[in-house]
Amino acid sequence: MPKTTQTTGTKYCKGCDTTKLIDEFYLRNKTSMVRHSTCKECDKKRVSETPSIVKREQALKRMYGITQQDYDMMLAEQNNQCAICETTEPGGRHTSNYFVVDHCHTTGKVRKLLCHHCNTSLGLVGDNIQTLETMINYLQTHKTP
Hints:
The protein has helices at about 40-50, 50-65, 70-75, 115-125, 130-140, and strands at about 10-15, 20, 100-105, 110-115. The chain is α+β, with helices and mostly antiparallel strands. The chain has a two-stranded antiparallel sheet. The relative contact order is 0.08.
């Protein structure tokens, strides 16, 4: 028999050891009504107290399966520059201090580190070599002096 999901009333918060209204707990995801075990206030406090370097290390591991040490080694092997355009400026709004970890979206395999612009360019063409070749031909045909 499936477990019933609580949608009204109160819920106990494991973080602050208090009972609060159910709306004071975040939903686990958009498709279910399951709530977090800690209230919004405790969640916000936990996130704000986690150092950004720890968050970055967790994100690298979760998203790409690499450590900060792996990232640093890749960057050193690339002479602290983008693997495509060789700029030393990562660029971008949200990742201005870091190069992007480029990876195959099909296999998940990490390729190299790219600047924001090169990574975005590859993403916009869907890593399609034929499209890139067509773009090169277009630019060669329509050169400006």
